[in-house]
Structures are given as structure tokens and as C-alpha cells.
Hints:
This protein is an alpha/beta fold. It has one domain (2-138): Metalloproteases ("zincins"), catalytic domain (Collagenase (Catalytic Domain)). The chain is built from five helices and four strands. Helix 4 (103-118) crosses helix 5 (129-138). It is globular. It starts with a strand and ends in an 11-residue tail after the last helix.
Amino acid sequence: MTLEFDDRAESGVDEAAVAAVVDAVLTAENVGEVEVGVVLVDAFEMQEINREHRGKDEPTDVLSFPIDDDDDEDLDGVTRMLGDVVICVPVLVQQAADNDVAVGDELVDLLVHGVLHLLGYDHETDDGEMLTRQDAIVAPLAPIAWPSH
């Protein structure tokens, strides 16, 4: 797995820890070699993205943008680009407080959630399958250390 990581929100989150969570999801789902992007943004940028792509003029916690969903395609050694997961740091921090969990635990949940969406899961249309799968993947994972500023 190749991770393209962009911490635009300057959170200071460890890229290797993010990569480990993304890799855990891909391993649990038996996904071969892929490239995944993870972008951490502020509320203003997330609001713009959410407005542009979903017509909702407010920041949200996580959005996923699948790029290539054809896992049968053989491109002669070219790594398949699975897509991008965009996480809003201020919403992440607020949700962690609202749910009385550590920010690093909430970040793991959002990363797993976002990558499952890249893999075609959709909790809005399934019968709880995605969220059940999310819980099973998250359960053994350690929280990501959240930097103190």
C-alpha cells in the first residue's frame, strides 16, 4: 500500500500511524497493492468540499472520493489508485469530545470509515453491514497518538 498523506490542517499527526490504520483496513478486506490518499483539512476547506460535492454547505467529519473501483483491471504493474479520504480536523476533535473518546480513537474510526467507503461500502444503503465491518476492523487497533499543541 502506498499512502499519499497531506496534513493541510497542520495537526502534526504521524503519517506512519495513519498508514498503519489504512493498511489494516486493506489487509482485512484482502485488497492488493493500491494507493490511497489521506488529507487532513480545516473546517473552511471541508465546508467548500462538502458544498461542491454533496451540496451541503457545512463541514462534515469525513468524505471519501473513490478513483478506481475496478480491481480486476491489470495495468502491467501500475499501482491502482483507490481514492482519497478527506478528514476535517476541527470536526474530528469536536466529535471526539461529544462522544467522550480520545481524539486518536475518533481518528481511527474516521480513517476506517473512509477507506471502507473507498472500497464500495455504503452505510446509507446497506443493512448495517458497513458499520458492523467498521467496528470489527477498529476493535483491535490502537488509537493514533494525537499531538498536543
